[in-house]
Amino acid sequence: MNLLLAPLIVSLISSLLASLIVIVDSIVNNYGEVNININNGKKILKVKGGSPLLFTLASQGIFVPSACGGKGSCGACKVKVLTDVGEYLPTELPFMSKDEIKENIRLACQIKVKKDLNIVLPEKLFNVKKYKGKVISLKNITHDIKEVKIQLSDKIYFKAGQYIQVVIPPYGKIKQSTQRAYSIASPPSKNTEIELLVRLVPDGIATTYIHTILNVGDELEIIGPFGDFYLRDTNAEMICVAGGSGVAPIKSILIDMFEKGITDRNVWYFFGAQSEKDLFYLELFRNFEMKWKNFRFIPVLSKPQEPDKWDGEVGLVTEVMARYLETIIDKSLPKEGYLCGSPGMINACESLMRKFGIDKVYYDKFA
């Protein structure tokens, strides 16, 4: 009889403890209504305390960029906090420079709204909106990259090169919605439709959903636009480097330039890939070469599977770019760098460009 009662007693005690924890948490962490003062009174929000600042602002229609969806792994959601909110968390410090710490820049996803706050936000974030969209096209353009086209219910105004955040709904074992950042691959002229390039990341919450669950006709929410990666209004030569899904913002910028007739600038686009199966949109870029006399397209393969059949550039994209900068590209003309890809690729390219005197380097660094 005791053996039968033991599990029931344990279960009852566990239930009581769980209920007690919920009650204590609701009492201890009940911060009530708090005020968030933005930009010295430009906006004052009355909100319920207890949630991270990132999500609290989003609930009020103010969207701070976050490439990781608030997981504290991208460092994008930086906000200047004028109120003392305690010491920096270990999750914040890797993303902060000494100057940012002096300015009390914090990660919005790591700060809980526990009391009245004074914060400073860039004015442009007030123009960021949430859009409803419907998937109108899904296409595999390589073995691991999917092209996604989304029809929006409202017009979106963005600069070529910027990005949006896709809201991924709960699915399978994923119990909460999350957000991930993706660069817009289409030009601003298509302001009711956006195109994304999504590379499949093993076990990635968003990429798994998009590659294996998302279907044409499904609805998605997006938030944006965000980002400072866009074409600068100068006459400098453009040295562009991107491969894989990093092609997206470069594609948007190039199409936008071509549509607007900004074809007097010299543009060198180095497309880095491992093998021919990783190359795509070749017809588009070759067509630019034929119609845009100042545009040069240089695909570079680091590991061509059949070297005898590949007659293009072989090696690391940084090695090929260095050779072009040294022997082919006119050294006397001012230059700007436009990079998109992994932190390692961007760091290597930026370091190399600076060796060649290219001080203005703009990039979209994947988290």
Give me the CATH superfamily of the largest domain.
Nucleotide-binding domain of ferredoxin-NADP reductase (FNR) module
Number of domains: 3
Tell me the total number of β-strands: 17
The percentage helix is: 25-40%
The fold-level CATH name of the largest domain is Rossmann fold
For the terminal residues, how far apart are their CA atoms? 58 Å
- Quickly give the CATH architecture of the largest domain: 3-Layer(aba) Sandwich
Q: What is the N-to-C succession of helices and strands?
A: HEEHEHEEEEEEEHEEHEHEEHEHE
Describe the largest sheet. Answer: 6 strands, antiparallel
pLDDT average, as an integer?
A: 90
Strand content: 25-35%
Rg to the nearest angstrom? 24 Å
Q: Which term fits the overall shape?
A: globular
What is the tally of helical segments? 8
Content-based structural category = alpha/beta
Describe, in plain words, how this protein is organized in 3D.
The protein is α/β, with parallel strands linked by helices and 367 residues long. Strand 13 (267-273), helix 6 (282-291) and strand 14 form a beta-alpha-beta unit. Strands 9-8-11-6-7-10 form a six-stranded antiparallel β-sheet. The longest helix is centred in the N-terminal third of the chain and has 27 residues, at 2-28. It folds into three domains: 33-125, Ubiquitin-like (UB roll) (Roll), CATH 3.10.20.30; 128-226, Translation factors (Elongation Factor Tu (Ef-tu), domain 3, Beta Barrel), CATH 2.40.30.10; 237-365, Rossmann fold (3-Layer(aba) Sandwich), CATH 3.40.50. Mean pLDDT is 90; it is low at 21-26. It is 26% helix and 29% strand.
